[in-house]
Design brief:
Strand order of the largest sheet: 5-4-3-10-11
Helix content: 25-40%
Strand content: 5-15%
Structural class: alpha/beta
Order of helices and strands: EEEHEHHEHEEEEHEHEEHHEHHHHHHEE
Distance between the termini: 48 Å
Length: 483
């Protein structure tokens, strides 16, 4: 382990900051709830994976051997959080006249493309739900006698059979969770299906034989089985978006308790993970964060408008992961400018070998950075410390490069792998070719040399009308204006 400040993380289960104490010395085992691959992920979804990536980078930075698992849900997730109804995958496959397998592959590839574009590290393993169905049936068989009961629609988990159900959400009422619809015969309103039978007369594209009839696993069962199988109970950290905190994760916890023990959650490890972490929502006031809104906000839309994906990563890092973050195009443009300023410095250092040790002038800045990331991943403060290093004067270039590289390994902005020209805005809708821009700039340069300032100004205005901002004296020469 390094001599870095002790890592402290906010545990959603206990609602308090806690020092990180790994289950296995020197290791960190992390499970992240991944996407249901029935549509493109929106940028709010991707905030969860940026957060999980930073967590993993911090654990690696502090010297832990990281095993990170992210699941791919390709079966079992209904169109809402009800116990009956359509599977999201079945519905989309039918609407697009494709097989579920084709749908799953297409949207999984799209998700992985976004992961790469945002410089999110690959986990140790992607776990795909349909590859674990036999293990899900075995898991359900083990807990069925003591914790489940069968109805015509499937096998249901009785939440009264485990201690402290709903403690993570802290929102359990006599009526149960608000988004779970009533099902005739359920013992408790919050009971949930862990195996859903295929209704008589229907055939699903994804269905399997089980002791409770032909059907498919429940969404909650998948994560319990895959996390336990790949990481072992208890593992260290379970992450996800705050929307999972109210239903999905409490149901996972109940299943984990039933599988491992029936003890209460005063001991967090009884939940299956010692620490549960959740990032807050990304809010967009126009309502385009929802996939039901038509052209919802996905990463490709940002790219089509000319923004580099790392500008969105920067935007997320500027806020604490537990804080609500409001999206705006102005805010994204500001994040892009901030990233450009960093790249201006790192481009000058790109060919400089990293130095050894830490320059005395940079040591306090590095200490601020280390303290910030160790205090529940405070990336906002960490970014400011990075900017202080970038702005430091009279420091050996190699020493500066080494500290910047150390910080960027945590923040993941790819500062030495990205050029400023890569960040140049180029909206998809723009018709002007770069060769045309360069031609106009050459004509303008000649006009200035001839002191024909009227022509020079006219050419500048011609480019401005096309969204091109001329930057006199800047080696880059020009950039697209945010439109």
């Amino acid at each position: 382990m390094t001599d870095a400040p002790r890592l402290v993380l906010f545990n959603s289960l206990t609602r308090q900051l806690e020092p990180f104490e790994p289950v296995h010395t020197g290791e960190a085992r992390v499970y992240t709830c991944g996407p249901t691959v029935y549509n493109y992920p929106h940028i709010g979804n991707m905030r969860a994976y940026i957060f999980a990536d930073v967590l993993g980078r911090v654990l690696t930075h502090q010297g832990y051997a990281l095993t990170h698992v992210i699941n791919i849900t390709d079966v079992g997730h209904l169109t809402d959080d009800a116990d009956t109804g359509e599977d999201k995958m079945e519905r989309i496959a039918r609407a697009q006249a494709q097989s579920i397998w084709e749908i799953a592959d297409h949207y999984t590839q799209a998700y992985w493309a976004d992961i790469s574009a945002l410089n999110i590290r690959q986990p140790a393993q992607w776990s795909v739900a349909t590859k674990y169905v036999p293990q899900m049936i075995e898991f359900a068989q083990k807990i069925a006698d003591r914790h489940c009961y069968e109805l015509d629609s499937g096998l249901y988990f009785d939440v009264s059979t485990v201690s402290d159900y709903g403690r993570l959400a802290r929102a359990v009422t006599d009526e149960g969770e608000g988004r779970i619809e009533a099902v005739a015969g359920k013992r408790n309103a919050a009971d949930f299906a862990i195996w859903r039978k295929t209704p008589p007369g229907e055939t699903r594209q994804m269905e399997w034989d089980s002791p409770w009839g032909r059907g498919a696993p429940g969404w909650h069962l998948e994560c319990s089985v895959m996390s336990g199988d790949l990481l072992g109970f208890p593992f260290d950290i379970h992450t996800g978006g705050i929307d999972h905190r109210e239903i999905h994760h409490p149901n996972e916890i109940a299943q984990n308790q039933a599988f491992c023990c029936t003890n209460g959650l005063d001991t967090p490890a009884n939940s299956g993970a010692k620490v549960w972490m959740h990032n807050n929502f990304l809010v967009e006031r126009s309502g385009k964060m929802s996939k039901s809104s038509g052209e919802f906000l996905r990463l490709q839309l940002l790219i089509d408008k000319g923004f580099h994906p790392l500008a969105y990563r920067m935007m997320c890092l500027q806020a604490h992961y537990r804080s609500e973050l409001e999206f705006s195009w102005e805010g994204l443009a500001a994040a892009l400018v901030r990233l450009k300023r960093m790249i201006i410095v790192t481009e000058r250092l790109a060919d400089t070998p990293p130095g050894e040790g830490v320059h005395p002038k940079l040591a306090p800045m590095l200490e601020t950075f280390e303290t910030a990331i160790a205090e529940d991943l405070n990336t906002a403060v960490a970014l400011t410390a990075l900017e202080d290093v970038l702005a430091a004067k009279k420091v050996d270039a190699g020493a500066k490069r080494a500290v910047i590289g150390r910080m960027d390994a945590v923040l993941g902005l790819d500062l030495f792998g990205t050029r400023r020209v890569d960040l140049r805005m180029r909206p998809k809708s723009v018709l002007l070719e770069e060769a045309e821009i360069e031609d106009i700039l050459q004509r303008r340069k000649q006009a200035r040399a001839d002191k024909d300032f009227a022509t020079s100004d006219a050419l500048r205005e011609q480019l401005a009308a096309q969204g091109v901002e001329v930057m006199d004296g800047d080696p880059l020469g020009w950039e697209w204006k945010p439109g």
